[in-house]
Amino acid sequence: MTACFKGTIMIITHRIRFTLAFLAGFAVLNECAAQVAVIAGAKSNIGALTKEQVAALYTGSAFVYPSGGNAVLIDQPEASEARKLFYSKISDKSASQIKATWSRLTFSGKGTPPKEVGSSGDVKKEVAANLSEIGYIEKSAVDGSVKVLFMSD
User: Fold this and answer.
1) What are the contacts of 79-82 at 24+ separation with CB within 8 A?
2) What is the pLDDT of residues 17-75, one digit of tens each?
């Protein structure tokens, strides 16, 4: 190989590394910027929730809303990005760890996992029609049919 050829290979290698590092940084920045809103129907009496209260409800350690009444939870599809983002924002557990927790609670008769619906649009419809339910959607999907109980950072 000639020195010129080796120099060209090194330049290309550095450009590829830079591009990959840039794209990885952009992906992390984009995920950090994404927010998830925990919502209820606009006319619901369920009050604002803290991150800890949301985590307790969705990880099966609480079954009653702080304001009273049995918690009825709506979940996104297992493979959805909204679900992965939600569980990463509210707990230190992955969605698969949460699923294992709910399986254990269901098997022991101590709890029922959240009802899974197909999309953020379905979550909005569900909570708007049933004032005792809460769910989560991307912040960008919030509209007048729902009220925000908690917003992730």
Assistant:
1) 80/119, 82/36, 82/120, 82/136, 82/137, 82/138
2) 545 444 444 444 344 458 999 999 999 999 999 999 999 999 999 999 998 999 999 99
Please report how the helices 81-90 and 95-108 are oriented relative to each other, as an axis angle in degrees rounded to 10: 80
Q: Give the H or E element holding residue 4.
A: helix 3-33
* Tens-digit pLDDT profile for residues 79-106: 899 998 999 999 888 878 888 999 999 9
Q: Where are the domains of the chain?
A: 1-33, 35-151
The predicted model scores a pTM of 0.77
Closest CA to 73 of 89, 91, 53: 53
Residue 18 CA to residue 59 CA, distance in Å, equals 40
User: CB within 8 A of 83, min separation 6: which ones?
Assistant: 75, 76, 77, 95
Q: To which CATH superfamily is domain 35-151 assigned?
A: Periplasmic binding protein-like II (3.40.190.10)
Q: How far apart are CA 49 and CA 52, in angstroms?
A: 8
Of residues 87, 61, 70, the one with CA closest to residue 134: 70
Contacts of 49 (CB under 8 A, 6+ apart): 38, 57, 65, 66, 134, 149, 150
